[in-house]
Amino acid sequence: MDDAVELSWGARCAGLAFFSLSIFLVALAAVLLLVRRWPNPWCGCHVCRAYLTGSWAKDFTNLADWYAHLLRESPTGTVHFHVLGCTVTANPANVEYMLKTRFDNFPKGRRFAALLGDLLGAGIFNFDSKFCAAADVLPDGTYVEGESRVMYHPYAMGRMPSIWGADYEAFRPDRWLTGPGGSFAPANLYKYPVFQAGLRVCLGKELAITEMKVVGVAVVKAFDVEVVGEHGRSGWAPTFVPGLTASISGGLPVRIIKRTLTPNSGFT
Ligand code: HEM
What we know:
Strand 11 (261-262) and strand 12 (266-267) form a beta hairpin. The strands form 5 sheets. A 4-stranded mixed beta sheet has the order 1-2-6-3. The chain has a two-stranded antiparallel ribbon with strand order 4-5. It has a two-stranded antiparallel ribbon with strand order 7-10. It has helices spanning 9-37, 46-53, 63-73, 92-101, 110-120, 154-157, 161-164, 205-220, and strands at 78-81, 86-89, 130-131, 136-137, 143-144, 149-152, 223-227, 240-241, 247-248, 254-258, 261-262, 266-267. It has 8 helices and 12 strands. It is elongated. The termini are far apart.
């Protein structure tokens, strides 16, 4: 028995129209989602192009190194990523403004606020960056739109000649031994905000520094630690894994050599 029902011409047209409308709405939703996620998805500036095409990876191992390069190049120490609707700064005056002067206008990211707000209170854990609540102008003259993303970049700030001088890449610990009798004088926290700065400095800062000193005394004094890289290669650049902390992809292979104690000079 043949149960097939022959649809009228009008019903077929209505079905086709409904199908086409559904496809159109899905496509429209996708475009709106894209626009919401990337506020300016068609920006053609060299920063946005390099970001979207991934061409930055030709010259830099880590995204953070490319950011640091852009921030060093910027006369104000601030860069806009238009496709992300994000302002990134390494300018200490901006950092002070965001973390102290106008703290309330730069709340933490929404995702973390939703997740951890009840537990941790307002204003902390901006690992998914800060937002600018109402349009504002940073001390370096940068205009930031309301509801846009703003972040300071501690990694880049540790690599800025404008903050540390032309030899910013040199391992020269004495740059911090400027206190009385060559004692340690901590850098201004807005220049070096690894523990954040301003109204909500990391509560574990002193404990973390003590832990580092313990490692310095127990390990560095007794062992030589040489980074050997993958398969023993030297001159190997570690690749950071994007995340809450700067862990290294595949770990950090090192060679450990125990130091020997000599009668006159202690450890060698
Ligand atoms: C090297 C180690 C550490 C680093 C680099 C670090 C860094 C930071 C940073 C950047 C923030 C601000 C987060 C934000 O709002 O975006 C923060 C907040 C905080 N950290 Fe740490 N931290 C370290 C270790 C610790 C330890 C060991 C503890 C606890 C024993 C701790 C407890 C806290 C707490 C409670 C806050 C929230 C402070 C507040 O908003 O009032 N941290 N930390």
